[in-house]
Specification:
Chain B: Belongs to the class-V pyridoxal-phosphate-dependent aminotransferase family. Csd subfamily. Chain B: Its cofactor is pyridoxal 5'-phosphate. Chain B: Keywords: Pyridoxal phosphate, Transferase. The complex is a heterodimer. By secondary structure, chain A is an alpha+beta fold. Chain A is built from six helices and three strands. Chain A has a three-stranded antiparallel sheet with strand order 1-2-3, covered by helices on one side. Chain B is α/β, with parallel strands linked by helices. Chain B is 35% helix and 17% strand. Chain B is built from 13 helices and 18 strands. In chain B, strand 12 and strand 13 form a beta hairpin. In chain B, helix 3 packs parallel to helix 9. The chains are: A alpha+beta, B alpha/beta. At the A-B interface, helix 1 and helix 2 of A face helix 11 of B.
Chain lengths: 157, 433
Amino acid sequence: MKLETMYQEIILDHYKNPHGKGLREPFEAEVHHVNPTCGDEVTVRVHLEGSGADAKVVDLSYDALGCSISQAATSVAYDLIVGHTVGESFEVLSAYQEMVQGRGKVEPDEDVLDDAVAFAGVAAYPARVKCALLGWLAFKDAVAQADENAPELEGQA
Amino acid sequence: MTALAPTTTGATLDVEKIRADFPILSRTVRDGKSLVYLDSGATSQRPYQVLDAERHFLETSNAAVHRGAHALSEEATDAYESARDRIAGFIGADDGEIVFTKNATEALNLVAYGMSNALTSDDPKAARFRVGPGDEVVVTEMEHHANLVPWQEFCRRTGATLRWFGVTSDGRLDLDPSVITERTKVVAFTHQSNVLGTVTPVEQIVAMAKQVGAYTVLDACQSVPHAPIDVHALGVDFAAFSGHKMLGPSGIGVLYGRRELLEALPPFLTGGSMIELVRMEGSTYAAPPARFEAGVPMTSQAVGLGAAVDYLSALGMENVHAHENTLTAAALEGLQGIDGVTIIGPRNTESRGGAVSFEIDGVHPHDASQVLDDSGIAVRVGHHCAWPLHRAFGVQSSIRASFYVYNTLDEVHALIDGVRRAQDFFARDGVSL
């Protein structure tokens, strides 16, 4: 059934016990993103070491109000981003965005996506894609504000 | 209070017969589930009578109205103006008092921009609408964004100050008498909250406004489709509603304005059709309603809305109201019988329409609607374009079921079962949220 396909156990687990939640110091940039259609919101801070694609994401801290999909997606983003470089994180984000916006036609690459592959079921519900992207796109924005040498996201203007 | 019948709503409406008029209601969604459409507060479905009227017009009489002297042009103009007459009659207005707009949002903006255009108009009749610093505009905290943001912008353009009536915890307006003062020039308010279902005391607010000579602007989007409305009896100066919430097409809204006021109000959109005389140096404008209908207007939509009004009139708006009241009572009772469900708004049907918003403890509205949708049930989730109202209730978003002529008590029961299913779904496998 589609419903269980979207609401994977791993998503509900992250919703129930979000990883890395809470706003922390130090940070170079903080952004606040809202989904105006439902009112969900997220505040994201990033702490980077270095610059450009090789900069290391030392911390991604966040506070969020929203549905299970947006909360769990942000929690998974924390797991997959912290400790990695901006370039690596953006590679995951690109693949993730392609998957959730792919209307179910994109075969997800689990090697790149890791736990984020659990969100593949969201692609069947276009109205929920924004939920799945809220925290990730806030992270991308925060990096762009923190570092003027931040790389472009693949496939983005 | 209307008594509850087990599966039908009694004699007020023959719902099975009505449902046969709406082709979309027989489709299935999400792997064969019967559609349970409980989102008519956002947009209603259309009966064959409306769809056929539009198609018939386009197949036989389509032309640009109020231009040309050929046969089709005359027929199209007659169809357009006949729709205006019937819509006027439906709300107790005269035909010169009905302006067609793109939607209700445009109708409300037409009033706000028309009034601020009075500041630069050289027509002495427009002077009565001039508003500036020191003047005040009053709205309410339960407004849809469509009757809030245009007045925020109006205040920004004119220098007037925005004030508002708050909302009580039981979902009524707090009509603090100090809000309307001698400085108040406009009182813009909803007839029925699209979130809470609350019906506001229009006569009382109109009396307060009249006492200080303020204009009243009524958002009637959620009232005109659902109950008998007589704008003259209500005494408002302006009222706006949309076609697509009353079995009619999208792309058409209606502004009612008292004739005397429409005659003095400067235009909003300008161009063809709305002029009297055009010279290179400047132009003069047509009498209303043409002054407010610039460009070639929507025509099949007007014809369709005329057919929708005929359809509703044949059902009888008293019957429509009684039917929805029965469904609302059943929904309120059923939802309040579920542990963890909180109604946002009045908890009985006193001065209340058929929009029922609620929260489920531990289940985000988006997630709840996903489970409902999986059972074929369409509801609205989010802030329903009333973000300040949600903030006033301390909630980020809510679930709204809204009812119309084609809904049944079985569908209300499906909603209640669906809410229980959503609770069970998110409590599964020990996931306690």
